[in-house]
Structures are given as structure tokens and as C-alpha cells.
């Protein structure tokens, strides 16, 4: 299973971006799917998750601004980011808990860079 993240770019503060994470396989069986972000010299930070039941959770700093969703038909996880702030600047990574036989594998996509200018 591979995850391919895209949609990053340069945007002014207050603007919006939508990140996509396309899976190489059908995602209907995937468990929790998440977005993380990382800035230079810092640990990867959890941003949002979408569980298999459709429940969502967000880190406090993005609540009300970011929305995580998935489209099983397109094998894609999304992160809609509105009202972007310079502190949202980071490399964003997608992640999925994928059933593989009798175990659960954690699969990471490559990052996509989001830069928010003030």
C-alpha cells in the first residue's frame, strides 16, 4: 500500500488549500486515517484524524478551520484548510492504519509542503 499526498503550495494568510492523499489500493477497509505536519527541527505533530466510523478529531489549533474527509470511491483522504495562518506552514503527511492479514500496518505518505505568507 502506498499513499501519495499532494495539494501543498504557497498561499497568503487567510487563504485556503485542499490537500489530497491518494492510496494505491481501495481505502474502504482502512481504519483510522490521519494528517500530521512537521516543521524543521520539530517532531511530527498530529493534526486531524478520521476514524472508520466517520468520527473526526482535530488538534486545538486547527479546530474550526480544517476539515478532514475521505472519498472511498476515489481512494482519497482530504484535508480542507481554511483561514490559513503563517503558523500552519509545515510539511503535511497523511497516514493510514491498514489491515494486512491479522495485523494492522501504519502507512505514511510522503509530505507535501504548505507555506503560508503573512
Q: What report would you give on this structure?
A:
The protein is 0% helix and 55% strand. It is built from no helices and 11 strands. The strands form 2 sheets. Strands 2, 4, 5, 6, 9, 10 and 11 form a 7-stranded mixed beta sheet that branches. It has a 4-stranded antiparallel beta sheet with strand order 1-3-8-7, with no helix packed on it.
Average pLDDT works out at: 96
Largest sheet: 7 strands, mixed
Our measurement of the CA-to-CA distance between the termini, rounded to an integer number of angstroms, reads 37 Å
Helix content: under 10%
Question: Which properties best describe this structure?
Answer:
mainly beta; 118 residues; 4-stranded antiparallel β-sheet; 7-stranded mixed β-sheet; 11 strands; single chain
Topology (elements, then pairings):
Blueprint: E1 3-6, E2 9-12, E3 17-23, E4 33-38, E5 45-50, E6 56-58, E7 66-71, E8 76-81, E9 90-100, E10 103-108, E11 112-117
Parallel strand pairs: 2-11
Antiparallel strand pairs: 1-3, 3-8, 4-5, 4-9, 5-6, 7-8, 9-10, 9-11
Could you give a short description of this structure?
The N and C termini lie far apart (37 Å). Strands 2, 4, 5, 6, 9, 10 and 11 form a 7-stranded mixed sheet that branches. A 4-stranded antiparallel sheet has the order 1-3-8-7, with no helix packed on it. 0% of the residues lie in helices and 55% in strands.
Amino acid at each position: 500500500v502506498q499513499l501519495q499526498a499532494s495539494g501543498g503550495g504557497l498561499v497568503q494568510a487567510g487563504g485556503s488549500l485542499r490537500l489530497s492523499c491518494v492510496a494505491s489500493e481501495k481505502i474502504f477497509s482502512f481504519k483510522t486515517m490521519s494528517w500530521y505536519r512537521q516543521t524543521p527541527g520539530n517532531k511530527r505533530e498530529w493534526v486531524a484524524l478520521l476514524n472508520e466510523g466517520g468520527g473526526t478529531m482535530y488538534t486545538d489549533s486547527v479546530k474550526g478551520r480544517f476539515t478532514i474527509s475521505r472519498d472511498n470511491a476515489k481512494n482519497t483522504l482530504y484535508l480542507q484548510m481554511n483561514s490559513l495562518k503563517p503558523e500552519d506552514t509545515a510539511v503535511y503527511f497523511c497516514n493510514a492504519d491498514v489491515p494486512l492479514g491479522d495485523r494492522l500496518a501504519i502507512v505514511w505518505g510522503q509530505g507535501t509542503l504548505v507555506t503560508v505568507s503573512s
